[in-house]
Amino acid sequence: MIADLPVLLVLDLVGTFAFALNGALTAVRAVHVDIVGVVTLGVITAVGGGILRDILLGALPPATFLDWRYLAVATAGGLVAFLFSRGLGRFGTTIDVLDAAGLSLFAITGAGKALELGAGPLQAVILGTVTGVGGGTLRDVLIRQVPGVLSGGLYAVPAAVGAVMVVVSTRTGVDQFLGAPAALSAAGLCFMVRMAGLYFGLDAPRPPGTGRPPADGSRGTADG
Q1: How far apart are the C-alpha atoms of 48 and 215, rounded to whole Å?
Q2: What does the alpha-carbon distance between residue 96 and residue 191 come to, in Å, rounded to a whole number?
Q3: Residue 150: which region, alpha, beta or left (left: phi > 0; alpha: psi -120 to 50)?
Q4: For site-directed labelling of 62, which of 51, 86, 144, 209 has its Cα 20 to 30 A away?
Q5: Burial of 19 (0-12, 13-18, 19+ CB in 10 A)
Q6: How far is the C-alpha of 86 from the C-alpha of 144, rounded, in Å?
Q7: DSSP-H helix ranges across 58-88
Q8: How much is the pTM?
């Protein structure tokens, strides 16, 4: 399993922390919630996508509840956001980078798990994408916002690109020869597409005649 590789597991946990941190910060900026709300929304952002994936795959109970580290790290991210929300604004770029790394790792581990459990190529790409963006979508629904992944910025596209790379490397047998480098290459491509979107302000294609939505300072980059 991809997530069982030690280096990727560490990066996966770092991504979980970044997702929780960014998700909780988004909640702080968007709505008035107490510590329970901030931590809960941070945890949902971090692990919600993986839980959705496991439910759709019938892998119950979800992996989040079988490995205490994910919930612990996600809770820590939410608490940090609650305690230091005012000062964390200056580290926006760093959080964006960690968030992009989390998206990348979640997408490839999600697609890899789907393939291991017998999903087809298209289904694996969808589930890899859901793993990356599902948590942020759940958070936005809970705080009554249009999910960021549906309204602006390249987020689902990079996740899908990374998931496609995993499927291709698995189907062609490349992952058997390269192992972790193959997974890291897929994650790296996802990461670069996401960072390019942030740097150049790119959006997914929109219907003709519609402009880019106004910037919303209440929505963080963990659009999930």
Answers
A1: 25
A2: 11
A3: alpha
A4: 144
A5: buried
A6: 23
A7: 68-84
A8: 0.83
